[in-house]
Amino acid sequence: MEPLPPPEQLQEQPPPRARTPRLLVIIAVVVLFAVGGIGFGLGRASVDWGTPDAFTVSGSMTVDGSCGSGGYSDIRDGAQVEIVNQDNKVLGVSTLQTSNERCHFTFTVRGIPTGERLYGASTGNANRGVIWKTEQEAKSDGFHLTLG
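Given the sequence above, the corresponding C-alpha cells read:
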C-alpha cells in the first residue's frame, strides 16, 4: 500500500465546466428560426387575413326546374364557380355547395384582388355565360344567379 502524498499536493480541483460547442448553438438557433418561419408561412397561407387588396365574394345559384339532370346536369353540388376580370382572367375559384333548398346552391370565393374594372361570375358549361358587376357591387351584393 502506498502512502498518501503530503497535504500541500492535494488541492481540490473545481469540477470541469460543461461547455456547449459554439457550432451546436448556432445550428440550434438556425433550426428554430427555420421552423418558426415555415410555421408562420403556413399560417398565413391558410388564414384569410382580410388584406385591403383582396376581398371575398359570396353568392348563390338557383335552378327553377330539375337541377342536376337534363339541360341542367352541369349545375350540381361541387360544380366549379369562377370569378374573372374584364379580360376573362380567372381571379378565384370555388365550388357550388348544396343548401337546404332543392336546386339552390351557395358559394364563397376568397382572395379576389381589388382594382379590376369589372368582375364576372360563371358556373356550369361555357354556354351559361358570365354575369358582370363592378367591384363595389361584387363586394356588397355578391353574385346571385338563376337559371330556368
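The radius of gyration is 32 Å. Try to locate this feature in the C-alpha cell string yourself.
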